[in-house]
Amino acid sequence: MLAAVLVAAAVLAWRSRPVAAEGLVLQTQPLLRTLQFSARMQTPARVELGSTLTGRVERVAVREGERVAAGAALVQLEDDELRAALHQAEATLRQAQARSASQRAVALPGADAALQQAEATRAAAERELARSRELVSQGFLSPARLDEAQRSLAVATAQRDAARAQALANRPDGPELAGTDAQRQAAEAAVQLARARLEQATLRAPAAARVIARQVEPGQIVQPGRALLTLAVTGPTELIAQVDERFLGQLRVGQKARVLADAYPQQAFDAVLARVAPAVDAARGAVEVVFVPVGTPPEFLREDMTLSVEAVTGQRTQALVLPLSALRPGPAEAEARVLVWLDGRATERRVTLGLRTLDQAEVTAGLAAGDTLLLNPQIAPGTRVTLRGAP
Length: 391
Description:
alpha+beta, six-stranded antiparallel barrel, 32% helix
């Protein structure tokens, strides 16, 4: 019996001995949560420049990497035939313009004068007929003379009608002038068409841009639909990234980021989150986000360059922070339990968490600065604890 009592006392003493554990005295400190991912550099638009004509390339004025201004000549096709067509159309236009001017300056006044002359001739023929009819009735002239006067009046009337029709045709609203104007307009359209085709022989930059690909050389025969140059239009530089949809709740427009290119590790620059795509890519389970550089983008940026982005998704200037490894699982995501060292024993506390990082969390309720947190969450509450080393 004595032995049993001694053994029980020894077991009790063994179980009630203090457990050594590490502790952490909580203090306020800055807390920063970041998200790291890869992105690629992209300009607002990429243009593939091609010819609308079939022809031989005479000259290529640019190479890859060069910057070009809006309207700059990039590729020149042989245009001798097009220039000849333009000269021919211009000559036809000059003829039509001369015909139209002549119609207004000569034909219309001539037709009016001819009409006046025809009317005067008919008036004279009418007077002659009246005089002949009177003389025939008096017996001074034979009836044959009367027939001749009537025929003269009929001829004068027909001439008068023809002159009147010609004068009407040469009026500003008449068919003759309308026809010459139509010919002139057709000639003008032909000149515009020939000039447009000649201009198409010179491929120009649609906007300020950088040449990122050249697929043409002098002497080649080009056809419509084939890309000859690829241009990156100059504009706001954008950094496009695909972020796992799990982190969508952390992203907000306006968040700041630090960007680094592997080729230039000493030249990091700042960016800001400009857009978050409204939909998630179901195939990849990712959402597209767009950052824009702050200020002038670095000169070393190239189209489709891969960059490393570290975005600040949460920040506290002063917060009570504990390591996530010290948490005891709680009933809700924002609530948890921890062990604090109080009067030499492990005491359980329920805490409310705020901002989280991969290994730390902000405590918004349940603890205060100066509390000693036990870093081993597996200790049973109420256990006597001795701190190992300095807290």
